[in-house]
Amino acid sequence: MPKPLRFAILALLAAAVVYVIYSSMHTAQFRVEVCLTYQGESACRTAEGRTRDEALRAAHDNACAQVTSGVTGTLGCQNTPATRVTWR
User: Fold this and answer.
1) I need a surface site. Which of 18, 33, 44, 62 has the fewest CB within 10 A?
2) What is the pLDDT along the chain (88 residues), one digit of tens a residue?
3) Dihedral pair phi/psi, residue 16, rounded to 5°
4) CA 1 → CA 9, 12, 13, distances in Å?
């Protein structure tokens, strides 16, 4: 393999590694804990996101995953308002 081609491949790999590290360290600007009750079951989960909506949706979905099973339960839970939302 020619030396310039090796250098180009290494430079691209290094750039990709730097991008992955940089993007993973600068993603979460918002952190929220969401608590909810669905069909008598309660759960609280914390999530982070780049936007408030992204963090809120992730925490709500994670809490729903703890108290439901199946598509019907998940859809019903996702439409249930949170009992407590705490921004951190």
Assistant:
1) 18
2) 788 888 889 999 999 999 888 877 767 789 999 999 999 999 999 999 889 999 999 999 999 999 998 888 999 999 999 999 999 8
3) -65, -45
4) 11, 16, 16
Task: Please state the pTM of the whole predicted model.
Answer: 0.70
CA 23 remoteness from chain centre: 14
Strand arrangement, sheet containing 41-49: 41-49, 30-38, 84-87
3-class SS letters over the chain:
CCHHHHHHHHHHHHHHHHHHHHHHHCCCCEEEEEEEEECCEEEEEEEEECCHHHHHHHHHHHHHHHHCCHHHHHHHHHCCCCCEEEEC
